[in-house]
């Protein structure tokens, strides 16, 4: 089973929804998710905020943060994931931002990628990657990695909920 199918099946079983905020992946995360039959039960949609201004205007990323650190930043990814959850009315949000190449951007070398997931009750995680390869390889590895990051977070979140429901340890 593909990572996208696994994530969608897990979320469907929990009655939860998902949205994506994409920059360097340019819609590839959404394409991967919607290639799975039945994705519409879980996947609410995506925002491809390729332009830095859209990260602020649409997703609500702090403008001062973008000015100070640029769009390729862990905190930007985190705010993108939280923002797409809010904009799309989803339980879970995921985000990709980075430099796929061919040139460095804002002092960040090609292959610098930040991924984030944001979920209910403060659940979430951010990952910083240094990827090798050409533009297409960096973008596809970013898609694979953000789906894996979400999958891990869903497992951790399920464990935490089980612990709460069972009264502790």
List the helices and strands and how they pair.
Blueprint (H helix, E strand, L loop, with lengths): L2 H12 L3 E5 L5 H7 L8 E6 L3 H6 L5 H7 L4 H15 L3 E7 L13 E7 L5 E7 L4 H31 L4
Parallel strand pairs: 1-2, 1-3
Antiparallel strand pairs: 3-4, 4-5
Helix pairs in contact: 1-6
Can you tell me about this structure?
- This protein is α/β, with parallel strands linked by helices and 169 residues long.
- The chain has a single domain, classed as Maf protein, CATH 3.90.950.
- It contains six helices and five strands, in the order H-E-H-E-H-H-H-E-E-E-H.
- Helix 1 runs parallel beside helix 6.
- The protein is globular, with a radius of gyration of 16 Å.
- The mean pLDDT is 94.
- CATH class value: Alpha Beta
The Rg value, from CA coordinates, equals 16 Å
Order of helices and strands: HEHEHHHEEEH
First-last Cα distance: 32 Å
What quaternary form is this?
Answer: single chain
Q: Tally of extended strands?
A: 5
- CATH-defined superfamily: CinA-like
Biggest sheet record = 5 strands, mixed
CATH topology: Maf protein
Alpha plus pi helix count: 6
Low-confidence stretches: none
**Helix fraction bin:** 40-55%
If you average the pLDDT, what whole number results? 94
CATH architecture: Alpha-Beta Complex
What's the shape? Answer: globular
Beta-strand residue fraction: 15-25%
**Spatial strand order of the main sheet:** 2-1-3-4-5
The class by helix and strand makeup works out as alpha/beta
Total individual domains: 1
């Amino acid at each position: 089973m593909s990572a996208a199918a696994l994530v969608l099946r897990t979320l469907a079983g929990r009655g939860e929804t998902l949205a994506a905020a994409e920059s360097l992946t340019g819609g590839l995360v959404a394409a991967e998710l919607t290639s799975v039959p039945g994705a519409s039960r879980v996947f609410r949609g995506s925002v491809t905020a390729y332009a830095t201004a859209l990260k602020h205007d649409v997703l609500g990323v702090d403008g001062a943060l973008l000015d100070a650190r640029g769009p390729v930043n862990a905190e930007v990814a985190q705010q993108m994931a939280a923002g797409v959850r809010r904009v799309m009315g989803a339980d879970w949000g995921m985000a990709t931002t980075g430099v796929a190449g061919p040139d460095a951007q804002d002092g960040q070398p090609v292959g610098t990628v930040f991924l984030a997931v944001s979920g209910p009750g403060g659940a979430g995680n951010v990952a910083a990657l240094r990827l090798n390869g050409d533009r297409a390889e960096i973008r596809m590895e970013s898609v694979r990695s953000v789906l894996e990051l979400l999958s891990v977070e869903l497992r951790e979140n399920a464990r935490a909920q089980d612990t709460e429901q069972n009264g502790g340890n």
